[in-house]
Design brief:
There is one protein chain. By secondary structure, the protein is an all-alpha fold. The chain is 88% helix and 0% strand. It has one domain.
């Protein structure tokens, strides 16, 4: 159970980092400290976590569908 939790947290953190770098790559590489400071003064400072959670849910649904398809074909 704990191993699955660590795996899911790792997936979430990787999604968070990748999506952050993809969306804000020019800011991260030119002014990273200013970008972090601006996050706390943003009108919606939790938006990276919210968007990452939505991406995580989509990937979770895709993983679940793939798991169910594999289980369906392995049964027969």
């Amino acid at each position: 159970m704990l191993i699955n939790f660590k795996k899911e947290i790792t997936i979430y953190i990787v999604l968070f980092i990748i999506s952050s770098l993809l969306v804000h790559n020019s800011i991260w590489f030119s002014h990273p400290i200013e970008h972090i400071n601006a996050l706390f003064s943003h009108g919606m400072p939790y938006h990276p976590f919210l968007y990452t959670f939505l991406i995580y849910l989509v990937f979770g649904i895709i993983r679940l569908v793939i798991k169910l398809i594999k289980k369906l074909f392995n049964r027969g």
